[in-house]
# Entry
Amino acid sequence: MPAMLSTQPHGLPHPHMQTEQGPQQRQFNPYTENGGTILAIAGKDFSVIAGDTRQSEGYSIQTRYAPKVFRLTDRAVLAVNGFAADGNMFVKKVRQRLEWYRHAHAKDMPLRAIARLIQTMLYARRFFPYYVYNILGGIEEDGSGAVYSFDPVGSYEREACRAAGAAQSLVQPFLDNQIYFKNQTPAPGTSHPTHLPLPTVLKLVIDSFTGATERHIEVGDGLEIYVVLAKGASTQALEGIRGIQETTVTNDGERVFIIQRELKKD
Amino acid sequence: MLATANNSLIAGRTTIFSPEGRLYQIEYAMEAISHAGTVLGVLAKDGVVLAAEKKVTGKLLDLTGAKEGGYGGSGEKIFLLNSNVIGGVAGLTADANSLINHARTIAQRHLLTYNEDIPVEILTERLCDMKQGYTQFGGLRPFGVSLLYAGYDPQYEFQLYHSDPSGNYSGWKATCIGANNGTAQSLLKQEYKDDIEVKDAIGLVLRVMSKTMDSTTLGSEKLEFAVLTLDPETKKPKAKIYRPSEIDALLQSEGLKKEDEEMKP
Amino acid sequence: MSIMEYNGGSVIAMVGKECVAIASDLRLGNQALGISSNFQKIFPVTDRIYLGLPGLATDVTTLQELFRFRVNMYTIKEEREIQPETFAHLVSSTLYERRFGPYFIEPVIAGLSQTPSGGFKPFIAATDLIGCLNFAKDFVVAGTASSKLFGVAEGLWEPDLEPEDLFETISQTLMNAVDRDAYSGWGCVVHVITKDKIITRTLKGRMD
# Structure
């Protein structure tokens, strides 16, 4: 039997002097942060919802391509960011509820109804929340572009633009300046536009993400941008955009497009 | 007289009185200073003037740094201690440089604590307290330097002080240290007027210098010159240590310039 | 509660074409309570070097006075003005002296350094609270709104901006960033440094 420390003869120094530690409680942490950033901007008759594709944990990259933005219907796109497992599961559950609605009502849920639904689904888990920041983008019943943003327990609000995730603090003030024209006075006799055109919005989205990628380690690898156009909106602005794909399902309503871009991988 | 102070038993200790109650080390220090280049100071009602005779001169001396940059002067006799005090030194140059460094640090430390320019007498007093310490503690020799402090503070306005190796100081209207200081002092006593202005003080200083300096020439090679006045707009003290070219121009305008044949290219 | 966030405040410096700009907010708070909307955090070191000190307010004053001491000693001994790169290293050593009991400040330096040919080159630098230097070519940020400043600056900055354009860029960067930070704001001040002059402007912004 090996000699125990406490039975060392006196006079000899203890080889392992240990300061006594009290009882320790260990617990399973159900959540983890997977990094990444999402962003949505509403136009007059369109909505843009974007997210980077990097999924990380601490200083490690789990994957360079894990989508965070999902098409719910032809008029609604949901971006989820925070804890990826909760995010992915939440999207599945929302899609399930949308399918039930479709069977029961013989039509797709209008966007504001989806927003309200998301609130109730999130609040139902008030005491063990989904650790996700949701941003819902799409076209309202009146044909206007809309963005709804949520906190993890369901508090929500309709806005013109919102950034969420790791680089929220980097992106949101940039958007305040470029979309809401905050701290900018218009030239005398003119006024700032209430809505920006689609090409401008797309450039702002790309610039926001390249900026965030530069200065935040959890942002990078790839960018996925969803564009939702209202019924009858012209696709002229989307002409000539490299690699644009359409994922619309129905024939006579809103249209959904996806644009993918590379981001720095370091 | 009594050479006992040089006796090996007590020679290593400055902290010792002679039987007649004198501190020989201090006197020997003053003796060293009496062979050093003259420094002359005159207090005017709107400024203070300092002039000094350089001892380290010669064609081979590299003074290229002194021509354009910095605060003027060659850095041998006259130094800027703080934005409101100019110092003139006579004696062992190495000791002087050490004291100048101390003075500058003391002035900045005062600024750090009180957020004000150090009053002239306070600076003088601090340096003197330090010098006195070297006559009483530590077994070290005193500094072989006398200093003139020309300064301004809002309380007592323009002032001129003289301190010596003993750590004693006094305030003067006009005074001189270094070689020929006796001659210069008596000249000043005759010519000084209480309400003298800076422009006249400049003339007085230069005339006295020309009479007491060892060298036959009076030019920027041998002379250092500085003036402390008050800026009329900002009301802040303005220290000006003259560059060699400015000294020559000044001497020219006072009609005192004497060429040095040796220094001519 | 973080000591760096106790009083609040932010500073940014940017490089332009033969000019630099440095700007800060004017808030001094006691955590959530705002105390002063007039608290200076940027100080001139020489005619061509400006130093921004965001962080714990007492250290702002202490460091400003300490650098004044050290730069005065340098000027008086060297008989010339200190150059920005040298000053940056002075800042770094001063902070590292307190490695195990640091000043709670992350200094930002902006200036124009003299080239051997007599021209002026724009210079900016920043350090962390223990003196690690960062010599950036574009911009440096510090303070409670630093992440916001990074984001907007990354979006708005481009190289070779003329002084007037640099002023607009740095102003928009600062104002939009501090508007998203509860602990920064309550007024902004901007200095644009060119080889001939320095223009200082106070910005009109949100006071909430």
Residues 91 and 197 of chain A are 29 Å apart (CA to CA). DSSP finds four helices and 13 strands in chain A.
